[in-house]
């Protein structure tokens, strides 16, 4: 406690602290570089019950409180369509005995954003995440778990990139002038589960 605070009544200090907390709460969480989305309802084929999907929904609604997800495509303003996702593990460095010392982890996520009539607001976009991870074949099980956790972190890290793309000035302008955008056949809306593959990552010798 500083000398100045000794002269402030305890009740007043508590009141000031409460006001500060209220101010922070009113601000809410906003991802740096992202702005509220121009559309009010989103449909997606990403499984929102998966860990990735649930975090995607939380992040978008926190940054854009006026936007909600709907499970009926005809009620949505836009369709966030996941086209594909792939992950790859490759050897990056070997020691003198030919044993793996380092792996490179690659995660690729491809998506697009369409309005309800199929106008392209964001053309097919590929996000790529790459990590390097040291490896020790004496603790294979622990390293396999670390690889899976790293892929999971990489997958969650893509969410910020997705939100920035969706809230970009280009997408806002495209949504405002959707009738001028090219139209594509509406893709399949089958739900995709973006959970990490079951079991440990496959380690190649």
TrEMBL record:
Query: In which domain of life is the source organism classified?
Result: Bacteria
Question: Subunit structure of this entry?
Answer: Component of the lipopolysaccharide transport and assembly complex. Interacts with LptD.
Does the keyword field hold Acyltransferase? no
Supply the name of the protein: LPS-assembly lipoprotein LptE
Q: Where is this region: Disordered?
A: 178-205
Native source species? Castellaniella denitrificans
* Keywords annotated in UniProt: Cell outer membrane, Lipoprotein, Membrane, Palmitate, Signal
* InterPro entries assigned: LPS_assembly_LptE (IPR007485)
Role description? Together with LptD, is involved in the assembly of lipopolysaccharide (LPS) at the surface of the outer membrane. Required for the proper assembly of LptD. Binds LPS and may serve as the LPS recognition site at the outer membrane.
Report the sequence similarity comment from the record. Answer: Belongs to the LptE lipoprotein family.
């Amino acid at each position: 406690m500083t000398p100045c605070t000794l002269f402030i009544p305890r009740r007043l200090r508590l009141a000031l602290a409460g006001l500060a907390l209220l101010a922070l709460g009113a601000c809410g969480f906003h991802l740096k570089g992202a702005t509220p989305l121009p559309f009010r309802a989103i449909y997606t084929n990403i499984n929102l019950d998966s860990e990735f999907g649930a975090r995607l929904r939380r992040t978008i609604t926190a940054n854009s409180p006026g936007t909600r997800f709907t499970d009926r495509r005809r009620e949505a303003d836009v369709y966030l369509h996941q086209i594909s996702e792939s992950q790859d593990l490759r050897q990056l460095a070997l020691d003198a005995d030919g044993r793996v010392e380092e792996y490179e982890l690659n995660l690729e996520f491809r998506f697009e954003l369409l309005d309800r009539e199929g106008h392209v607001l964001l053309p097919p976009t590929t996000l790529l995440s790459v990590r390097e991870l040291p490896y020790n074949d004496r603790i294979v099980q622990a390293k396999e778990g670390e690889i899976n956790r790293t892929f999971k972190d990489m997958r969650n890290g893509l969410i910020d990139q997705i939100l920035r793309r969706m809230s970009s000035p280009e997408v806002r302008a495209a949504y405002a002038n959707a009738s001028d955008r090219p139209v594509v056949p509406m893709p399949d809306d089958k739900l995709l589960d973006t959970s990490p593959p079951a079991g440990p990552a496959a380690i190649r010798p």
